[in-house]
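ok new one. same drill as before - structure tokens go in, u give me an amino acid for every spot. 279 of them this time. try not to just spam alanines like last time pls lmao
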């Protein structure tokens, strides 16, 4: 059976107000949390493969203990196992340190056929972690993948590029970053949600399905993790103030007429137009 690892990250809810700590990091304690929306596309691909060709789906997340919530959400969508990598020494990891730690989780898990990641996150937003994990594991990678199928040990993927697609093939094991134009995550099925509720009530079952690991357990070198393993220096982070200003709508019988109105308004507001660019 295909062994799939899906990386999912808990991020601050974009609808909530997250503060910024004095050191420039996000004050995650105050923010509401959610599963990174981009990772839902990766999870959907894994679930589709599980139903289509048969697969064992392990979801891995790195974060503080509340990140277990995204593992539970993944179970409710059909994942089989969850791994939480949590360790105080991981705090302030940049993408290099994050990819190091996550690839060590894969090594710790052993054999795998396919790794799926989201395209990027809504907090760090770098889209670097997936490709760095592939490099560290020395496996082929397909980024921006919209559709994929597997036959034997060959992966066929449709990759989104500017203005079109690329059809690629790669030998497994491989890593794929799933584009947000791929199939959206299906709604949870009642049976999956009920099964998750049930196993969460039994501590031994819960422990079997959700593994919590530290740097020591996965055999990672703390010198490559967290702040000490992160060469990135954040110069300054600040919160944007409310953007003020007002908006005027010009509606005329033609674009030319609207532009005339706009120019007249700009002139009456004291602006001087030195050049008009047509086109
Ligand atoms: C100096 C510095 C300090 C930072 N301090 C912190 C901090 O204290 N806490 C913090 O959370 N972030 C911190 N960050 C942000 C952190 O570097 C990134 O969020 C993290 O490295 C992942 O990169 P990304 O979010 O850009 O992921 P991307 O590369 O945009 O993500 C691509 C995909 O990789 C996978 N992925 C990424 N991260 C994880 C994860 N943690 N678990 C599972 N899968 C994942 C997901 O599938 C995701 O869709 C810091 C960054 C810098 C530069």
């Amino acid at each position: 059976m295909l062994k799939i690892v899906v990386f999912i990250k808990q991020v601050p809810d974009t609808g909530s107000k997250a503060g910024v700590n004095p050191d420039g990091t996000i004050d995650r304690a105050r923010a509401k949390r959610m599963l990174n929306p981009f990772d839902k596309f990766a999870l959907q691909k894994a679930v589709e493969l599980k139903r289509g060709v048969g697969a064992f789906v392990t979801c891995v997340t790195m974060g503080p203990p509340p990140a277990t919530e995204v593992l539970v959400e993944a179970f409710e969508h059909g994942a089989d196992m969850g791994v939480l990598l949590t360790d105080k020494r991981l705090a302030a990891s940049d993408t290099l340190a994050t990819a190091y730690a996550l690839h060590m989780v894969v090594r710790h898990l052993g054999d795998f056929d396919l790794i799926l990641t989201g395209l990027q996150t809504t907090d760090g937003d770098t889209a670097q972690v997936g490709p760095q994990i592939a490099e560290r594991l020395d496996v082929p990678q397909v980024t921006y993948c919209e559709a994929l199928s597997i036959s034997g040990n060959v992966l066929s993927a449709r990759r989104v590029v500017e203005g079109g697609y690329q059809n690629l093939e790669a030998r497994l094991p491989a890593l794929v970053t799933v584009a947000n134009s791929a199939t959206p995550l299906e709604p949870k099925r009642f049976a999956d949600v009920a099964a998750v509720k049930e196993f969460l009530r039994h501590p031994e079952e819960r422990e079997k399905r959700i593994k919590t690991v530290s740097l020591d357990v996965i055999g990672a070198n703390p010198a490559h993790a967290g702040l000490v393993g992160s060469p990135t220096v954040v110069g300054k982070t600040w919160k944007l103030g409310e953007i003020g200003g007002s908006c005027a709508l010009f509606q005329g019988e033609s674009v030319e007429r609207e532009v005339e109105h706009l120019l007249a308004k700009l002139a009456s507001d004291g602006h001087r137009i030195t050049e008009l660019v047509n086109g």
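The CA atoms of residues 14 and 247 lie 25 Å apart. and btw The pocket of flavin-adenine dinucleotide is lined by residues 7-9, 25, 36, 38-39, 42, 60-63, 91-95, 98, 102, 117-118, 120-121, 123-130, 230, 232, 234 (CB under 6 Å).
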